[in-house]
Amino acid sequence: MSPTARPTETGPSDLQKAVPDQGNFGSRLRQLRLAAGLSQQELARKANLTQQAISQVERGGSQPNWDTVCRLAGALRITPTAFLNADG
C-alpha cells in the first residue's frame, strides 16, 4: 500500500509532532532541495506543484498537507520521514 493510501496510519500526526512549526519544515525542504541540486521550479515540476507553492512552504508561509509531503518526498527521492531530521 502506498504511503498516501491511508494517511492516518502512515504517520502524518507523527510528522506534525516532530515538525511543530512551519519554518522548520520549510528550512528542511530547502536543505533537501538544494542537496538534490534542484531549483524551486524543478522541484515543483517533479512534484506536480507550482513554484509559488514551493516558495511559500520554504518561507514558512504554509504547512503542506500529507499528500504534498509525499509528493515532495517522491520528487526528492526520499522517504517522507527524511523531513524529520537533518541526517536524512
Give an overview in words.
This protein has helices at residues 7-10, 12-18, 22-35, 40-47, 51-58, 66-76. The chain is globular and about 25 Å long. With 88 residues, it is mostly helical. The protein has one domain (21-84): Orthogonal Bundle (434 Repressor (Amino-terminal Domain)). 59% of the residues lie in helices and 0% in strands. It starts with 6 loop residues before the first helix and ends in a 12-residue tail after the last helix. The protein contains six helices and no strands.
Topology:
Layout: H1 7-10, H2 12-18, H3 22-35, H4 40-47, H5 51-58, H6 66-76
Helix pairs in contact: 4-5, 4-6
Please give the CATH architecture.
Orthogonal Bundle
Helical coverage, percent range: 55-70%
Distance between the termini: 23 Å
Top-tier CATH class: Mainly Alpha
CATH superfamily: lambda repressor-like DNA-binding domains
The CATH topology is what?
434 Repressor (Amino-terminal Domain)
Radius of gyration: 12 Å
SS class: mainly alpha
Strand content: under 5%
The main pleated sheet reads as: none
What number of structural domains do the residues give? 1
Tell me the number of helical segments per DSSP (H or I, 4 or more residues long). 6
State mean pLDDT (0 to 100 scale).
Answer: 81
User: What would you call the shape?
Assistant: globular
What's the count of strands?
0
Oligomer: single chain
Low-confidence stretches: 1-11, 16-22
Helix-strand sequence: HHHHHH
